[in-house]
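Each field is set out as follows.
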Amino acid sequence: MKKSRKITGLLAAAAMLAGLLSGCGAAKTDSTPVQQTEEKASLAVTEEAAAESTAEADKPNTSEPVTLTMYLIGDRPVDNDEVFAKINERLQAEINTTIDVKFMGWGEYEQKYPLIFASGEDWDIIYTADWCFYNAQATKQGFYEITKEELEKYAPMTAETMYPDAWEQAKVDGKVYMLPMNYKEITAYVYMARGDLMDKYGITSVSSLDEVETYLDAIVENEPSLIPLDVGSDYDKLFMFDRMWNKANWETEEKVTGIGPWQAMASTGENDDTVTVKGNFDQPQFLEVAARLQDWKNRGFWSKNAVVNTQNNTESFQAGKSALATMNVNTAKSLYATIMEEHPEWDIRVFDAQEDIPAVINSYIANGMSIFSKSKHPDRALMALDYLRNDEECNSLFCYGIEGKHWEPVGENGLKSLPDSGSYPYDGNCNWGIRNDTYWRTIDEGGIPNLSELNEKWLSTARSGRYQTFVFSDAQVKNEIAAMNEIFNSEYKLLGLGFTDDPEGDIAKLRDKMMAAGAEKVYEQIHQQALDFLKNQ
């Protein structure tokens, strides 16, 4: 306001001076040097005022308070509301915005996620990923398109800091519908076991499927009150299938790998330049894996009611109901600190579950945040995400909780989990979509003792799969994908948990159902799109 008054005063003074000068001299048409100087000054002031006026007009309007609704997946941390109260204080002060957070639990998100887009509910932001409906909803116009112009206007910090590759990877049919994480991530899987039980039964390692089998056998025979491995929820129905399947595929000459949407159950060889696409059920190693899963189920390694499990295997392990859990290492970091605080007598031990399969260098779209296409406030949603990603206070609160209560800093890039971290676990609040390398901290105290050793091994062999950034467009096969999704959530998952009396016969039935659902048409689309993808590499 003060600057505006100053400009007005200068203009008035310049006008008065010009008037005096014009009235004093003879009738002369040429300007004097004084007049020219004052005219230039007046023009400069006018241009400055116009520039400021334009900048003010371009600035987002935040005069009206807005509350955004954001959906996350997973289980709601006990202290979530307390943490977001502090985040909202910051957002309200900066952009006059607050966020109401809703959760879809691990046991329900696969069913609930697609439904909220058609529910008529008023919401704004949602977690998404290449494994969590990103492509499916982007091609159905479920997500709001984000342009570079909007990014620069409403999310300038993100526009400045986003990795260029991240922007490119988020494109679906040339358009971007996600703000990918700004974090370079390696994914590797681990087993978490009870050290007290391992010592009790003379078991020294749980680092291979054979060693896991020995450990689970000991639990079945000697610990009837425990479920050896409590898998079965929507989150982890296929965790053990994946461990066996990935090992079997990596050992093939073709290096078989998944390709396309998970509902398609499709695979090809990384060394196959012709990109021959098959259903997993047509790969020779599928029967071997299904038979071993049937054997493990029959031996009581998981519950007879696993197919209707609503508690995932990490929750069951933490609650003392099971003897083993499997998870990615990022989950293990927070879970280890929490359990050791609650039950130090369990002597928790963490083992590499990769079995010499290289760890995966994730694409940036392995985690991200999107805006609902029907959001009433997409501009404010972009602004809020900009702060959650790039404002150190907001980012640290979302990722780690409240400093001094849930964590405390250790050095420049480390932290120590405090006793209350169990109510807001480190990196455990579906904050993954706003991770940012700039502010990322790792657990330096109270963390997994052998983590550095594991990381060194994984980093030495980590790789990106050939189709890591391949994004499939289902525009031509939406109905077929929908039908295959039903089969995936029934027959395929039953086989993945070993619930079969005749693996070979049930695989044949699965194949017949998939062909009737239009699998061949889908596989041809994957084949053609993958060939185009490779041409552009």
Residues 66-183+364-440 form a domain with the D-Maltodextrin-Binding Protein; domain 2 fold (CATH 3.40.190.10). The longest strand covers residues 66-73. Confidence is low (pLDDT under 50) at residues 1-30. The chain is about 45% helix and 15% strand.
